[in-house]
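dumping these here so i dont lose them again. two proteins, back to back, each one seq then structure tokens. dont judge the mess
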Amino acid sequence: IMASPTNGSSPGSTTSPRGGSSPAGRRKRILLAGLVGLLAWWVIDRLLVDRRPIVVGLLHSLTGIDAPVEKILLDAEIAALTEINANGGLLGRPIRWEVADGGSDAQAFARQAARLIRDEGACVLVGCWGPGGRKSVIRVVEANDHLLIYPGRYEGLEQSPNVMYTGPVPSQLVGPGVRWLREDYAAERFFLVEADDLWGRAVVALAEDILGGLGCTVVGRTLIADEDDITVAVAAIVASRPDAVISTLEWPGTADLSRALRSAGVRPESLPVLALPRGTSLVPAREGITGVSTAVVAGPGLPAGSGPPAGSAVSDPPTDRPTTEAAAGATSGIRLWAQAVRDADTTDVRQVRDAMRHQSIATPEGIIAIDPGTQHTWYRVTVARIRSDGRLDAVSGGTAAALRPVPYPMTRSRAQWDQLAAASFRRWGGSWVPPRAPANTTLPPPAAPAAGASR
């Protein structure tokens, strides 16, 4: 007599008591486990991985006197951020930029900087142009232990632990220019034309120091405060018979000086003019720069040989639009920051700021790098002659290697440089530019920096 199975199944059945050993059962179990795993991964990913956009604050003057220059910088920064997003963003997150208008006014810059940090959650600010706007924003980022990337060339005489400066300073520009005048023209006697602003004062003071150290003679120095001063300057230049002129005027002023010298009978080959403006958006030939042997010194954005039309750049910006040295600095600043975010593997401001002090990138002009001691940028500089068609030809005097940035040149003590800046501040009534200039520089409160202070 055959005993029946106690579970009630037939003798030949392959089904387990719980129905789980059949192929269909095993597939169900595997599918269920997979779905549970996917759900768990999705929950963990949403809880532990931050997918929110990384916010970058772009702070420039969209209105006011500085708008034409700063809009070029803004375009370069947006193009660089767009390029990063197109390549997958940072840390698996997209970048969202918030644009704020400083309105060519220092107080507006400060308000907008605070808003970007407080309300928009920006993890970095990029921008500013004029000294008043920059200095007011520095107060905000220092108070919030934040980070500003400042892209333009400026007078130096400043250093903040909360700022990365990605444009050149006078110590990187004056020396190569003077060397060109000495080597190509055997210049010994110099006339200095000083723009009535902080840039002009700092550059002319450094030029005097360098020329004195070389045993050269400064035969004259003229401060240009208005158009009438150009006529006075030309008369003084003709009377003093210098071997070379160094001008810190912006391009309209340099054009006026060039035309006035030509009208006074100064032959182009007899008197070279070295132009060292703060703004590096080169004017076309129609502005009248040509006619006197004129050259310009700059960091990124000048060709190493016969180059593109004046005003274009060679710093490989992610855009086909004409740009400037400062726009190249803006592009490089964005890229250096992005590398720092990747290296730090976070957007935490302090960690990114520390990582950025050790960043470098390759450009067509060579390697540029943040100097960890000053948080300014190493640059190779070029001396280029402005041709009659407005294009640029490199001449001797440029540097084969990048130059170290020295915001406080060693020709004077830091206290002496601070005293020079403070004297200008007081002279202009608590502003960083002369009172006649548009109000993009008045600082609240209007107190001059003490000697030895960082600003």
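---- next one ----
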Amino acid sequence: MRVAVRRLTKRWGAVVAVHDVSLEFARGAFTTVLGPSGCGKTTMLRLIAGLEEPTAGEIWIGDRLVFSSTEHINVPPGRRGVGLVFQSYALWPHMTVFDNVALGLRQRGLRGEALARQVRAALNRVRLEGLEDRYPGELSGGQQQRVALARMIAVEPQVLLLDEPLSNLDAKLRLEMRAELKRLHHELGITVIYVTHDQVEAMALSTRVAVMDRGRVVQYDTPDRIYRTPADRFVADFTANPVMNFLEVDVTATEARADGLVLPLDPQGPPPGRYILGIRPEDCGVSPNPVSGSIPFRVYAELSAGPDQFLHLRRDTVQLVVKTGGRLRVQPDQIVYVTLYLDRLHFFDPETGRRVEAAR
């Protein structure tokens, strides 16, 4: 079932948490709302769920208008057909896994074998069969998160809202639960709206991503386009993994200059002018020997994390972080040679931060 918000706004006094947002979450899509703390993403989720009342705007779930500031409509949370899973699992510690999952079904009047069958089906979907009689305190963090998901799945919501559900898990469990969420979405086919500040999580899980900044949606697109053609400098920086290089450059017809550094440019680059140049660490080649078109840099530091290697490089006042394709044996102060992938450079307006497309 689709979800649409139109000109949605939420104010607390002088603070505008959500500012005139219009979005449509497609039926059956897995949409992530991505942004830093305080950008309004959780507030928007709570507005959709009915846990907070908007200041203005409309919310549609399917063909139902569940909130309208002009028509004075505000459908209660329990009648909106949505399930909400919080960052905290919100499990009752004195109840077994079975009873926690059965809670919503019992509130709807389900009893007996029909209740047991639906609870078992939900637990099977999250791979917790056989743990019905355990208590939350006897489960791992990942298992507790699965119980919270099973509780929502059991009542068969039309829309599933997830508010940073994996942030309390360690790195390994987060990876496992991402795979489980992806599988569940495929199996259930329901509309999922997922809030996170983790850009890797957003890129891995989503059909589409809405990037928020200071209450506004600054880009709404596929994960690939968010990463490869960010709408502005904020999106480029926030979706960087782990960092994006930014340089102030003066562009001519054939090159860009930055503090004495001369960079060759693709003929399809932006028109001459002053820009912020964005370079992702993986969009550079690096070699210990000179290569045609390469630029010498001095190694400041080398950082390795498993299969990834990041070189922190300097040349006069210019600093650059480069991700290598494998382990390159280097020493501090060694000279290496960097080649920029000219078709992957990003240019942003220094005043507005907006992306500048090629114009020649």
